Amino acid sequence: MKPKTKKWLTAIASVVIGLSVLIGGGYFYLVNKLTKALTGCELRSTNFTQTLQFDYVSKWIVVNVKIEGSDREYPFIFDTGAQTVVSDLLLSELNPKSFKVFSTFNDKDTTNAFYNRLIVLNGLSIGDVHFGSIGCVEMQGEKWDMLNCISAYGIIGYNIIKTCSFQIDYPSRAMTLTDKLTDLPNYSSIEWVNYRTEGQETPIISANINDSINVELFFDTGMSGDISINSPELYHKLSGFSQNEKVVKSQSIPNLYIRGETENVYKSLTLKPDRLSFFSSNHTSEILVRVNDLPFRKFDGTIGNGYLENYNITLDYRNKRVGYVPNNEIVETDLSTFGFSSFLRENRLFVGSVNEGSEAQNVGLCPGNEILKYNDLIIADLPANLYCKIYRKEFLLSSPADSTVFLQVMGKDGFASVKLFRYTPF
Question: pTM for the full model?
């Protein structure tokens, strides 16, 4: 090879390598910048301890939030298990100078409620406590479906929650925000437990069921249920127990379809444990644990407000710990059932789960069947405002005093009318 040719090849190679380093470095710079924007939040207030009321809607915590640049307050879901979320409806009402768009969305993605678009709000306030540069995910309100009945505007997520301490007093419907824990009136009564995280700043805490089943539970105030575990191994272990051993098997489909969930039927069971040790206390009330024959994630399951409402909860993310004080009165769970559950979707009512061996299963009820008539109510003829009242449990399709229920359902073989009786499976 001629020296001149060799020199040119060396120069070209140097340029290519230099461009590769530049492009690679630029890529990681952009990724880091986007990650910081998405998970970022600045606490702008100092020396504060403020208590405010929250709404507790169908076991969802809803707080009022004021966005910088707007004069009104918006109801947001308080969710330790999620990133902060804002809806396209909210953004359409805000001054465009109130936020920045960090990435564009993929309008071909129709599988879930979330745009591939990252938003940074300039600021927001919860009461008199101010936060700035809040990273958010944008969601599409039309795909938020019945959750619009809880909040059509957004979610207060872990990137806000981690900046200071939050105490949740469920019975009083009161939330206290503070940057000085020792100012909390019940500080001396709080018992603390450390937690770990997995990919995001949401507590994962160990629990024990019946002194024999150890699980790690995702601490999720954005879940309205009690305890839900995804574990094929645990499902198959418990599914061999009899009903007298406090296990009821069922077939189910998802109740929410906001993250691309499918309508595939899966097996599940409900366990009524004799003991549940969470934190360092034993809980022996009528708590139910749902175990699904579904792949587990990097933790075993999720614990939601249905269980947490039995405690006064303090979130101290700065020190990676959760504090608790048991409430004086345990919230009891009604264990009676008609053998099925139902849920609303797009103002239509569907069967969500059916207990195996129940009369509901015997008459042919299946997950996914549409319920056209519930007692005397024709679902399609209900006033528009009543669907949200049903979802918020402000209007009950049947009361705990009802011993029977009459349904008209649409199944694979057409219409069917059934009468079911209330019973206690355990």
Answer: 0.88
